[in-house]
Design brief:
By secondary structure, the protein is an alpha/beta fold. Helix content is 38%, strand content 20%. It has 2 domains: 102 residues, Urease, subunit C, domain 1 (Roll); 322 residues, Alpha-Beta Barrel (TIM Barrel), CATH 3.20.20.140. Bound molecules: zinc ion.
Length: 456
């Protein structure tokens, strides 16, 4: 059994606020065993090389999409949109083997750690080979995700995705969607089969419904009644204006409205994007207790729109951040873009601060920490006794960080520096990033490069 370790933190962000000269004890199982403020400092203690903050949970990832990040920025002949991007994504999917998926996911997860995340929620819908051809095992690609998370050393909440239709009302899936498709019984069998794998891997198992387009209400109800994961339930909703129009044409109701009317949305749920909502939908989603999963860099990249975050926060809504298609992979870029979208819309500054004089960075960070933890199905989040030791050490040698104290540290990191401020990252008690490099960086990069060359 691994032995426990201690870490002296000169500045650390605890649930009750910033504290000085704290000694953390981390158990051999990777949990925080003790938090000792104002400790007697012995010279033998290992000292963190800068301020320590909790690593966030990234609440929305489609890992394989990292392989195409940056390559869809070419103007087409028509109005480029989410839907033309989706066609490019379908072409990629048809060419990736399980080995490729694992190499890309391992690379992505190592990048997320370097970006300040300690945990990822994988919304996993790439279940089969091109044209829908089945692998020998139905769990093949899920197992590759579990392996990737273990190889990178990131915590994982695995959400196999139910996806059955091309559009509202149960329409037949298109050719490009065949690798995603299950019927209800096959999907429930997949969840059952993955239980022991997730237990062995230390991952949390939940489930996702791709969207109201991809599942009928009856299918959703059957799955919800039969599933036994006990884990989180995620769904994409109201990402695109066309989705809103199609939903109204089909049901007479808007997507968020339909979801809240027809499904038992509560604190087990996470609504991904929820970009296009009326004031009433915004209030209802906020009051449901569900988390909203915001992916500001992807939402900007795909031209989705701007989430009504100020109204949602005003109603007490819970949110976290994800990197979705992975055009960005850092905590700083997502939180900054979330705030800047609100500023650009309102032509005002400091939109998401918790009150007068409050730090925007701190408000965003606290919200994303709690929302990400809830969406991941964690019992608690933040640096607490009994929680997983998921820590980010910001670079105290960087003058911006070294000269800052308290919430200024978050302001410098999130709004002025970005990932360069992240020095060391611990996940489940293991140092997986040291001085900005992942512990297996070279091997991970080599495998990833091979995949990109093959797909090129
Ligand atoms: Zn997504």
């Amino acid at each position: 059994m691994a032995t426990s370790q201690t870490l002296l933190c000169r500045q650390i962000l605890l649930p009750e606020g910033w504290a000085s000269d704290v000694v953390l004890t981390i158990s051999g199982e990777g949990l925080i065993a003790a938090i000792e403020p104002n400790a007697v400092i012995e010279s033998s203690l290992v000292e963190a090389a800068g301020p320590v903050v909790p690593a966030l949970a990234n609440l929305h990832s489609h890992a394989f999409q990292r392989a195409m990040a940056g390559l869809a920025e070419l103007a087409g002949t028509t109005d480029d949109s989410f839907w033309t991007w989706r066609d490019a994504m379908y072409r990629l999917v048809g060419r990736m083997s399980p080995d490729d998926i694992e190499a890309v996911a391992t690379k992505l997860y190592s990048e997320l750690l370097k970006g300040g995340f300690g945990h990822v929620i994988e919304f996993h819908y790439l279940h089969h080979a091109a044209g829908g051809r089945r692998y020998a095992s139905g769990e093949e690609t899920s197992r590759r995700i579990l392996h990737a998370a273990q190889a990178a050393g990131i915590g994982l909440t695995h959400l196999p995705v139910f996806y059955a239709h091309a559009g509202f009302g149960g329409t037949e899936p298109g050719e490009g969607q065949r690798p995603f498709i299950h019927d209800v019984d096959q999907f429930l069998a997949l969840l059952q089969a993955l239980k022991p794998d997730c237990e062995v891997a230390g991952a949390t198992l939940g489930l996702a419904i791709h969207s109201l387009r991809a599942a009928t209400p009856d299918e959703m109800r059957t799955i919800l009644a039969a599933e036994e994961t006990g884990g989180p339930i995620h769904i994409h909703v109201a990402e695109q204006q066309r989705e809103v129009e199609d939903c109204i044409a089909w049901s007479g109701r808007r997507p968020a409205e339909f979801l809240l009317d027809e499904m038992p949305v509560d604190d087990r749920w996470c609504a991904i994007h929820a970009t296009h909502m009326t004031a009433d939908e915004t209030r209802r989603l906020a009051r449901s207790g569900a988390v909203t999963g915001l992916c500001p860099a992807t939402e900007a990249n795909l031209g989705d729109g701007i989430f009504p975050a100020t109204d949602f926060a005003g109603f007490g809504g819970r949110f976290g951040i994800g990197t979705d298609s992975h055009v960005a992979t850092t905590v700083a870029e997502e939180l900054r873009l979330l705030e800047y979208g609100q500023r650009l819309r309102d032509r005002r500054r400091n939109r998401l601060a918790s009150g007068p004089g409050a730090s925007v960075g701190r408000t965003l960070f606290d919200a994303a920490l709690a929302g990400g933890g809830q969406a991941a199905g964690m019992r608690s989040s933040g640096i607490r006794v009994g929680a997983r030791a998921d820590l980010v050490v910001l670079n105290g040698n960087n003058p911006f960080i070294g000269a800052a104290s308290g919430d200024q540290i978050l302001g410098r990191w999130l709004f002025a520096l970005g990932a360069e401020a992240v020095r060391d990252v611990m996940a489940a008690g293991q140092w997986v990033v040291r001085e900005g490099r992942h512990r297996n960086e070279e091997a991970i990069d080599n495998a990833f490069r091979e995949v990109l060359l093959k797909l090129a």
